[in-house]
Every structure is written in structure tokens, then in C-alpha cells.
Amino acid sequence: MSIRRSWLALGLVPAMLAVAIVLPFALYWGEIPSPMATHWGFDGAPDGSMNPGLILVLLAGFFGVVWLGAVRTAGRLSGEAPSFLAVLYGIGGLLAAVGWLSVLANRGAADWMRADTLGALPVALVVIAGVVAAMLGWVLGGGSAATQPSVPAPALGGVDPQLTIWAGRGSSRILTIVAGAVIVIGLATWSIATLLLVLIGALMLTFAEVRVIVAGGGVLVSHGWLGFPSWKIPLGEISAARVEDVRPMAYGGYGYRVRPGVRAIVMRGGPSLYLERRDKPDILFTVDDPITGAGLVNSMLEAEPLPS
Amino acid sequence: MLLKLDPGSGRPLYEQIAAAVRRAVAEGEVATGDRLPAARELAQSLDVNMHTVLRAYKGLREEGLIELRRGRGAIVRKGATGPASVHQMIVALADEAKRLGLSTEQVVEMLRKELG
């Protein structure tokens, strides 16, 4: 993330979100009961309460921890800034909306059971607040930045393609964190949903990393902590390799993306290893040091006799 | 990460793989803390048995070049560069000595004189 923007993106905006979380409590402290209603059932009536000070500390504290984590890891982002900020701001927006709605529902009530009912509309507002904040984060992170031109990858000099191996890796810190959060939340809410959430988290974790090995007769692709799924692209299928700059939004997001003529495994924004294929759609992987990997593929192609 | 196997080496494949890793570490191609390719995947891409690669990795662990950690894989240890380049030279020395028909005792004697 560029230094120019980080004071705004990681300083000013999150600070404003933190203020937004604290503000309703500050404004209406004298008008809310203690304990205040903090949980509403499906019928819209309040069915759980908590000390207002405690809920404020939880909301602001959680956002503070996420903000601190964001500031600490910001230096190592390289290409993930849009989604990173989107998650940070999305959480801030959600928490602020939750705080505002809870306080306003409790405002003027003599005790927590007499707080306003909250139906579908307030829940929708919370979600919208989160999404709008996330979109702001995406834009501020440069999500719609222009793409760099393709980079041809000259065949590697001084190597015997038969005896050389290249390995590259690309992972999405965001997906890893979200997958971890899903698993933790699944375990925390010990219920029927736990198994499903843990499985979903495990699946997300699998697709949070891609590894590519260029060796022998082709390109091996593997995923995640299991190493499965894994498949091999034979050299015979490939016509050329190059480096392609990837803006995730141009491919519709993260993960396994399908576009006309190309399949993209997008873990992060930035340079990717792009393989042009003869009779199949092209395929790309956002892995590190793709120029060496592409160079080796091109070396192997030069050394191979053309198919008859 | 780029690994280069030695041409014309008569050594078994697991030794060639270990030598390629040592060479990459010695040349600075691979840094401390870098993770080597997963053994199963490297074996798959080379079309060899996974145990061949594991044998290479275990040898490198015994030399102190890498650590093998469950879940993390093979990680290059701090301070590996020096020993790696020395080991590489020893391998080259051994190959040359064999080619010239020198005995082990002759080579060890020469080494002893140099190391003092």
C-alpha cells in the first residue's frame, strides 16, 4: 500500500468508523436503560440484555483489534489492499450500524424489555452499512486501478530445461483469515451449524493458496493445506507463457474465475503466470516470481519438438 | 524458487535433488525461512516416488540445512548458506576425485594439509 494513501486509508477513515461506533453511546447514554437490550429474537422482540458499557467495549474493542492488526500487516500486502480495506471497513460499518440500532431501539425505554422491536428493515440496514463501507474500502485500496501491460517472458538462459524445476506460490491472506474466522465462529456457536461452518471454513482454506511447479513434462497445480485438488497441465497443451498483471475485479473477484477464453486462479492482485493453451482456454495463476516460471515454460517449449 | 539438477551426475536422484537445493541455498536463490516445494508435489511434478524426495529432504535436515515441520513443510534454516556452499564444493571435489581415480585417503590427506 503506498505511503501516500495509508494515513488516510489506515488512519483517518478507520478513526472515523471508531467514532461512529462510540457516538450513539456518547450521545444517548442518559436515555438508555442499564442493562440495555442487546439481542432480539426472530419475532422482533428483545430477548437478551447486557450492560451498555460492556457492549460498547466489545464493539469498539473488537474493531480496535482488527484495526491494529490491519495497521501491523499493511506493509506486507502487495496487491491485496482493496480486499484488505474492504474487510476492515466492512467490519467497522457493521459494528457502527449495530451500535446505532441497538442504542436507538433502547432510547427512552424504562427497561431493556421495553426496547423497540427490530424487524427485517434494521437488519437490512446493518448489512447495507457493512457493504457500503466495504465498497469504500475497495475503492480506497485502488481496486479499480489500471492494469499493467503483459510482460513477455524470455526463455531462461543458461539452464537445461530438462534439469530445471521452478516452484511458485500464491496465497490470499484475506481468504485465510476469513476461513479461520468462519471455523472459529462455527466452533464458538456450538450448534448444528458448527459442522457446516467448519467444513465451509476448511474448504475456503483449501482454496486460499495455490502452488505451481514447472518441471519435467508440464505444470503441476496444487491447492491449499491438503495439496488437493491437484492436477497437471502437460507441456503439449501449452503454446506460450507470459506474465499478466491481474486486477481481481477484472476477473470478477477472487478464487477460480471463469472468463471467455481464460480461467484464472486469483489469490491476490498483481503479476501472474499466464499460460496460453492450444485447444483449451488459457489459464493463469497469481503466484510469486511468475517471470522465472514463464521463462522456464518457454525454455521447455523451445526444447520440445513441435507436435506433428 | 529455481532448482537446477546437475547434468551428467551419476548420483542417485535423491542426492541430485538434495544437491540442487544446496546449490540454490548457496547461490542465494533460496533464503532463510523460505519453504521448499511440498515433497509430494515435487515428486509428482518429476514423476518420481514421493519417498525419493523425502529421502533428499531428510538428508538435508540431517545436515542442518532445513527443518521439517508438520503442516509447515521444509523450511530453510538460519545460517544454512555457508555449510551449503561448502557441502556443494565437497560434492564437486568427490566427483572430480573419482574421475581422476584418486583414493579417499589421498583426498582426505590433501584436505587435512589445507585445513591445518
Quick gist of this model?
Chain A has seven helices and twelve strands. With 308 residues, chain A is of the alpha+beta class.
Topology:
The complex is a heterodimer of chains A (308) and B (116).
Chain A: H1 3-28, E1 36-40, E2 46-50, H2 52-73, H3 81-106, H4 120-140, E3 151-152, E4 164-171, H5 173-188, H6 192-206, E5 209-215, E6 218-223, E7 230-234, E8 238-246, E9 255-259, E10 262-266, E11 270-277, E12 282-285, H7 290-303
Helix pairs in contact in A: 1-2, 1-3, 2-3, 3-4, 5-6
Chain B: E1 2-4, H1 13-26, H2 39-46, H3 50-62, E2 66-69, E3 73-76, H4 81-100, H5 104-115
Antiparallel strand pairs in B: 2-3
Describe the structure.
- The complex is a heterodimer of chains A (308) and B (116).
- Chain A is an alpha+beta fold and 308 residues long.
- Chain A contains seven helices and twelve strands.
- Chain A has helices at residues 3-28, 52-73, 81-106, 120-140, 173-188, 192-206, 290-303; strands at 36-40, 46-50, 151-152, 164-171, 209-215, 218-223, 230-234, 238-246, 255-259, 262-266, 270-277, 282-285.
- A six-stranded mixed sheet of chain A has the order 3-8-11-12-10-9, with helices on one face.
- In chain A, strand 6 and strand 7 (230-234) form a beta hairpin.
- In chain A, helix 1 packs antiparallel against helix 2 (52-73) and helix 1 packs parallel to helix 3 (81-106).
- The two termini of chain A are 49 Å apart.
- The mean pLDDT of chain A is 87.
- With 116 residues, chain B is mainly alpha-helical.
- Chain B contains five helices and three strands; from the N terminus they run βαααββαα.
- Chain B has helices spanning 13-26, 39-46, 50-62, 81-100, 104-115; strands spanning 2-4, 66-69, 73-76.
- Chain B has a two-stranded antiparallel ribbon.
- In chain B, a hairpin with a 3-residue loop joins strand 2 (66-69) and strand 3.
- The longest helix of chain B has 20 residues, at 81-100.
- Chain B starts with a strand and ends with a helix.
- The model of chain B has no long low-confidence stretch (mean pLDDT 89).
- Chains A and B meet through strand 4, strand 5 and strand 6 of A and strand 1 and helix 2 of B.
- Strand 4 (164-171) of chain A pairs antiparallel with strand 1 of chain B, so a sheet runs across the interface.
